[in-house]
Amino acid sequence: MEVISTNISAKRTIIIGGEQVETGMFKVPVTAGIFLSKDGVKSDAVVDHRYHGGADKACYLFGKNNYAHFESLYPDVSWELGMFGENLTIDVLDESTLNIGDVYEIGEVQIQISEPRIPCSKLGYRLGNPIAVKEFAKAPYPGTYVRVLKEGMVKVGDELKLLKAQSQQLILTDLYTMMKSKSEYKHLFKEVLKNPFITDNVRTKFTM
Q1: Which pLDDT tens digit goes with each residue over 177-194?
Q2: How confident is the model at residue 37, as a pLDDT?
Q3: How high is the pLDDT of residue 114?
Q4: SS3 for 131?
Q5: How is residue 68 annotated by DSSP?
Q6: Which helix (H) or strand (E) holds 72?
Q7: DSSP-assigned letters across all residues of 136-198
């Protein structure tokens, strides 16, 4: 797993449903790399801190290998790296091999897998079709948010190296499926809640 693009965004105002909405969705590649702190990515716009940024969602990773699925659905979109709002575009990211709590080294940084990304309306705007949100949710390619355990720079060419695999396994895509279809998986919630590495966001969703 190798970083092929490091991406940040400025704040932008868009129109969704006739209303002005500010977003940091429009990431663009930066050649100098990005600095990952424990609260987020330096110089990257985070508008709604309820859903983005902070310790449990300090950085978002998405795989270039998974672009092809969406490119086939939306061939008229002008595709570029950072389209999914990811800070780090990875050449090959297989979410079904990532476990909540696993720790990776990348560049100067140590990161920990924290939770999958649940799409919002801003992704639909980015791809030019509100249905894109549902299409993203149906696909097993959520990308992953991570915690930053050790701060530092990440640049193109840096590789993700597994430092510590957690013995109490909770596969990222399994958690994603449960978060999308809570009513079908209530019988598994107690086991999920025992995992010491799940985020407060996930814990709240599974206890409501």
Answers
A1: 999 888 888 888 888 899
A2: 96
A3: 97
A4: coil
A5: H
A6: helix 67-73
A7: HHHSS---EEEEEEE-EEE-TT-B-EEEE--SS--BHHHHHHHHH-GGG-GGGHHHHHT-TT-
